[in-house]
Amino acid sequence: MDIPWWRDAVVYEIYVRSFADSSGDGVGDLAGVRERLPYLRDLGVDAVWLTPFYTSPMADGGYDVADHRDVDPLFGTLSDFEALVAAAHDHGLRVIVDIVPNHSSSAHPWFQAALRGEGRERYLFRDRTNNWKSTFGGSAWTRVEDGSYYLHLFAPEQPDFNWRNPEVHGEFLDILRFWLDRGVDGFRIDVAMGLYKAEGLPDIGDQSFKAVSPVWGQPEVHDVYRDWRRVLDGYPGERMAVGEVWTDSLEDLALYVRPDELHQSFNFAWLQAPWSAAAFRKVIDDTLSSVPFATWVLSNHDVVRHRTRYAADDPAAGPARAKAAVLTMLALPGSAYLYQGEELGLPEVTDLPDAARQDPIFYQSNGELPGRDGCRVPIPWTVDPPSHGFSPGAVPPWLPQPAAFAELSVEKQEGDAGSTLEFYRRALACRRDLVRSIPYTLEWLKSPEGVLFFTRGPLICALNCGDRPVRLPEHDEVLLASGPLRGDLLPPDTAAWLRRAS
Ligand code: GLC
């Protein structure tokens, strides 16, 4: 069988608002992405995933889509998008775009019509509410003028579609074709376990919410992905789809990647695992035994950056652990998704002033939850303020960058062999050389407690999550390490790739 491109691909998530601003308004845009494509090619990734750039009032950073077939003026135009796809392909990079099928913006013409009483069955209007909560805090229901309520699992500006209405289904098939016709290589499907809600919208009872949720993971959703798969398969060039599927178990996750459904589904169990060899090993084993094609990820625009997550019990350990974790991830069978800025070792920005925050989670929780702005701070390209090269002009970026970003900027790290950026470049180049020649499978080698050793053909990956240096397994050559080795010893918070003694 030919191996599809996405099976081992390294995909780089671009949170468009925060990547690069070409227009000087302080917000990233598509032309900014295009200008930085050589950076991504040199980094050594295979594809980019662009977060939503569609027409939107930006109540949830663009995940509130008002027109699924156009580009918001904040991000550019449809021709900017077409130019970006063409340039990416010229650089050998594939392009994945985000599709948001669970809800629209309240500014979407369908919802505006619904408010006037037309076509309400495209959304979930009811005379009475149930006890469901919005993922962002507060009730999942908002009252409209005539006294009825509509369901929104996220912000009130994100009304949920009624997927039991075939018109919604048809509309999304058409939206997929619209972007496939413009050359996209795949889709990232937002809230892919949403879409259908249990018939009758029953209250969430005393029974475990997780086990029998009327909200998420209804069986009907799989027929949607079967239809989408047929559309994707109808286009040349191995077009693919990756689901944002939050589930409680990898068995549930596996349902979304059956051969006639989605190609990939993010493995959030890996992202949620604490800094622990035993926890990592369990997720790796469970993943490889439950899904046909593993899809690893450590950070994205919704979670605390992994450099900061891993530092919870030891603030100084974050940078080393983040590098060790990514080197381990890149050695695993399957595809890996990186999030912009992790290659610079960016930490979560935890001290944003309240007035600067934009995430609806912060507002809907009345400031109790910080929200996700801390992982969305614009990328520092150069050392100098005001925007560290993010914007061409003097307009401040849409979220303020901390002074520490100067030292972490691309300009500062490029060419410095000890930098995180150069480490990522070496790791991705080495992976590219190896990945197609080693088996998809993994074997564990005996290792001390707190340490993992696994092999894939001639490659050995060693990770030390313990607190003492350990002897490396027998090998011919050290290919790469996430930090300095001490002779034959692997220090704590360090990973290494070795070539195996033949
Ligand atoms: C997904 C997105 C997140 C967004 C939510 C609602 O989880 O990744 O950023 O807020 O869906 O669309």
Automatic annotation (TrEMBL):
SMART domains assigned? Aamy (SM00642)
Gene3D superfamilies in the record: Glycosidases, Oligo-1,6-glucosidase, Domain 2
Q: Which domain of life is it from?
A: Bacteria
Q: Which GO terms describe its molecular function?
A: alpha-amylase activity
- A Pfam family of this chain: Alpha-amylase
Q: Where is the Glycosyl hydrolase family 13 catalytic domain?
A: 13-376
GO BP term, pick one: oligosaccharide catabolic process
Against SUPFAM superfamilies, the record matches this protein to: (Trans)glycosidases (SSF51445)
* UniProt similarity note: Belongs to the glycosyl hydrolase 13 family.
Could you tell me what this protein is called? Alpha-amylase
Question: What species was this sequence derived from?
Answer: Nonomuraea longispora
